[in-house]
Design goal:
This is Sulfotransferase. By secondary structure, this protein is an alpha/beta fold. The chain has helices at residues 3-6, 9-15, 35-39, 41-45, 64-75, 88-91, 106-111, 131-134, 146-159, 169-178, 186-196, 207-212, 214-224, 231-240, 243-248, 284-297; strands at 25-28, 31-34, 54-58, 118-121, 138-143, 202-206. The chain has one domain: Rossmann fold (3-Layer(aba) Sandwich). Helix 13 (214-224) packs across helix 14 (231-240).
């Protein structure tokens, strides 16, 4: 084993610290992605999963980590200690992410894991490597209402020192509406998976439903994955994946990522986890402008989003 392979995830990031910056975006098939991802695109596109692999797809800040933890606990019969074997990005690699060496890429981590693997992606449907569909991998897509997703992404871009400078809130709203943020348009993202959900057997779930009735949604995920655990285990998973519990869990709260990348003194990675926090950020004028644009961009589809529960 090389010295680099012996490094922990956090140590690898700290070692790469001088190379870490707010990386520029480069379009890949029209979707803005960080330059390291774009430069490694051929390898990402060529990735061929095992049919037993599970893909967890979301637009950024829509409940990804929450869903990853639920699935890991389901696979380990609610054993919280088993799910503390490594931080989330090591247990469930981020397919397309690439960083300066010695930080392992998502592909590097996946190569060292035996199937079945939990694989995370923020790629829109059209950029998901075709091997996932050819091998009929189970795919869970989590969607969050646009206004709350926007607020959460704004705070994330403030503290994530590898993504472009977010600028002021007023301008960020327009970047979101125009789809110029990393991973592109929220509107196209949620619509892409929605329109393919039946053909591709995608379990499409909503963040708001998870907040409203987490037990029901955990059971939906369990059935989709052809798993069966006891009611007692379901209750335990619901408790262990509450926002409070996950925020306190060092294997799930991204404290494994040092401040050179995630400066949690600016904003916590797990900030609020609420539905309706957008009401604390949008002015009435901004809300009206956003709603009018939303109607225009979503007029061709009827996805039952809720901005309050």
């Amino acid at each position: 084993m090389s010295e680099e392979e012996k490094l922990t995830y956090r140590e690898a990031i700290e070692k790469a610290g001088a190379s870490i910056t707010r990386f520029p975006l480069i379009p890949v098939k029209g979707i803005p992605l960080m330059n390291h991802i774009a430069n490694n695109w051929d390898s990402i596109w060529a990735f061929c999963p095992d049919p037993s692999d599970i893909l967890i797809a979301t637009y950024p800040k829509a409940g990804t980590t929450w869903t990853q933890e639920i699935i890991d606990l389901l696979h380990h019969n609610g054993d919280s200690e088993a799910c503390k074997r490594a931080p989330t990005p090591v247990r469930s690699p981020f397919l397309e992410i690439c960083s300066p060496p010695p930080v392992p890429s998502g592909l590097d981590l996946l190569k060292k894991m035996d199937p079945p693997r939990m694989i995370k992606t923020h790629l829109p449907f059209q950029l998901v490597p075709p091997g996932f569909w050819e091998n009929k991998c189970k795919t869970i897509y989590v969607a969050r209402n646009a206004k709350d997703n926007l607020v959460s992404y704004f705070y994330f871009d403030c503290m994530n020192l590898t993504q472009p400078e977010p600028g002021p809130w007023e301008g960020y709203i327009h970047k979101f509406m125009q789809g110029t943020l990393p991973w592109g348009s929220w509107y196209d993202h949620v619509k892409g998976y929605w329109m393919e959900r039946e053909k591709r057997n995608i379990l499409y779930i909503f963040y708001e439903d998870m907040k409203e009735n987490p037990r029901r949604e955990v059971e939906r995920i369990m059935r989709y994955l052809d798993l069966s655990v006891s009611d007692e285990v379901i209750n335990r998973i619901v408790e262990l994946t509450s926002f409070k519990k996950m925020k306190e869990n060092p294997m799930a709260n991204y404290s494994c990522v040092p401040p050179v990348v995630f400066d949690q003194s600016i904003s916590a990675f797990m900030r609020k986890g609420e539905v309706g926090d957008w009401t604390n950020h949008f002015t009435p004028e901004q809300s009206k402008m956003f709603d009018e644009d939303y109607e225009r961009q979503m007029k061709d589809v009827n996805i039952p989003f809720r901005t309050l529960i």
